Amino acid sequence: MGGVEKKKYARGSATNYITRNKARKKLQLSLADFRRLCILKGIYPHEPKHKKKVNKGSTAARTFYLLKDIKFLFHEPIVNKFREYKVFVRKLRKAYGKSEWNSVERLKDNKPRYRLDHIVKERYPTFIDAVRDLDDALSMCFLFSTFPRTGKCHVQTIQLCRRLTVEFFNYVIAARALRKVFLSIKGIYYQAEVMGQLVTWITPYAFSHNHPTDVDYRVMATFTEFYTTLLGFVNFRLYQSLNLHYPPKIEGQAAVELKPEEGEPYALDSESYMEKLSALSASLARVVAPNPEDEAKVDEFPVDGESTEQEEARQKEQEALEKQKKLFEGLRFFLNREVPRESLAFVIRCFGGEVSWDKSVCIGATYDVTDPAITHQIVDRPNIEKQVIGRCYIQPQWVFDSVNARLRLPVADYFIGVMLPPHLSPFVTEKDGDYIPPEKMKLLALQRGEEPEEDSEEEEEEDDEDESEGSEVEEDSDKEDEGRLEKMEAQRSQSKNLPVKVTAGKVFKEDKRRLAEEQQSEEKRLAIMMMKKREKYLYKKIMFGKKRKIREANKLAEKRKAHDAEAKLEKKKTKKARCK
User: Fold this and answer.
1) Contact yes or no for 439/422 (Cβ under 8 A)
2) In this structure, are residues 19 and 63 in contact, taking their beta carbons and an 8 Å threshold?
């Protein structure tokens, strides 16, 4: 009996995928609109496992999407808005061509607009899902907020990104949620703990932009369009969780106080208020003022399956975290005009410190340089003429290193004109067998409460002693060699004359520790011999990786040793040159 003939490539994986051109034709969209829709909806191309089968025997390069994803886009309301916008552009172009200015104004007033709120709710069913996906949104918004107002992107987008990022900065300050900071070549990496989730983002340095020609700003603008909507939702919920007003309001500040004393308007009220908020020097107003009597201590219950040691470790970590939040409490900082104001003000405020700067630098200064209560002045120049007694003049790196170390580091290493220690990344955690630089070892010792060994001073003293006693040692060495030769000759002559003697033997004590190690190594060797071929291959791969890691660590240690020896020699040469 003959059955129905089955067509080739009509079942299996070939029916699960669709090419990009076919998807565009189904949706009746241009390539730009299709790409934009896919970015907003979070739909990305897929690489099929059997590409030739999906491509119906062809090996040509094609972009594939899942068919169920494209079907998901059929009833998206934004697709209709894209079509309406295309009709709007056509009508507007025709009205401009005919010089019908009334029609142009009418069309502009009725320009089709769409919202992305339903897409945000669709892609992130819960608030925690949105917080987990906040890394890219923050990085993109911080990048766009630093763009100059050129034709590359809309001014409204730049202003919106700036407002949202400033609001997020103020939330992190109010919640004291910042955990780590790292200054890299790309920009400044921050890590904050938001609602129990670690969020890491990067902010570019405040330098002038040179827009590269090989970057498609339209694709970036589409991502930013979605990310601004997402960040607006997140900011609202975060402010609500801390009992703060949204949009944010500055505590105890009226709009009149933002204008200068001369009476001339500084700027629009909204702009001056935004600048005051972006200064990050003032606290935010709360919806209901907190009452210390109403604050109750939260009861702690043991977690199921948690041992007492784990519970103690968790409590210890919580105490260290609370201590880190109050790292700069009681300190007053003053920033010189040459240091990066925004990043330093943000970090200092996140850990309870007070910060100010010169009034000519930025709006929002809270006190002047002459304030006697200033404890630390942050300077980034070789020297400063007038110095106040009792005030620490330090370089900006001290603030970031102290945050990463979770303690106030000694300020002596960060004084003006001093060679700064290396800025170690807090995102790197060394495992067993990894190379740990001496600076990290010193930092770990400080965290444990130990005093690190001061090798430099001891080495200098040894060098001085070696130089002073060098000539004496050379003279004594010749005499010692002659004495050794004489003793050796005397022993040889005595051994020839001595008679042979038989002495009683001594009981040999076995080293139990050595025997146990030998037995353990033998058991390990036998276990390796009994392994299957596949298991033995995996074991050899693991051991090879471990040995390679040890070799790399040893190589780095040798490099560091050679570098230190060279630096020591150079220091000695300069010291001798000064003495001459």
Assistant:
1) yes
2) yes
Does the pTM surpass 0.85? The reply is no
Q: Under DSSP, is residue 264 helix (H, G, I), strand (E, B) or coil?
A: coil
Q: Point out the least confidently predicted range of 48-62, 88-102, 104-118, 153-167.
A: 48-62
Pair 161, 220: CB distance under 8 Å? no
The torsion angles phi and psi of 343, rounded to 5 degrees, stand at -65, -40
DSSP state of 85: H
Can you read off the two tokens belonging to residue 564?
Answer: 């230190």
Cα angle 71, 75, 77 (rounded to 5 degrees) comes to: 140
Token pair belonging to 351: 């850990």
Is the CB of residue 154 less than 8 Å from the CB of residue 224? no
Q: Determine the angle formed by the axes of helices 134-145 and 155-175, rounding to 10 degrees.
A: 120
Q: With pLDDT > 90 as the criterion, what percentage of the chain qualifies?
A: 30
**CA 109 – CA 207 distance, rounded (Å):** 38
Q: Which of 125, 144, 287, 317 minimizes the C-alpha distance to 219?
A: 144
Ordered DSSP codes for 518-531: HHHHHHHHHHHHTS
Q: 332-335 and 354-357 as β-strands: parallel, antiparallel, unpaired?
A: parallel
Q: According to the model, what pLDDT value does residue 525 have?
A: 87
Question: In which band, very low, low, confident or very high, does the pLDDT at 134 lie, cut at 50, 70 and 90?
Answer: very high
Question: Order of strands across the sheet with 392-394?
Answer: 354-357, 332-335, 376-378, 392-394
Q: Which of 166, 280, 165, 278 is closest to 228 using CA atoms?
A: 165
Q: Over the stretch 558-570, which tens digit does the pLDDT of each residue have?
A: 888 888 888 888 8
* Distance (Å, whole) CA 131 – CA 234: 7
pLDDT number for residue 235:
93
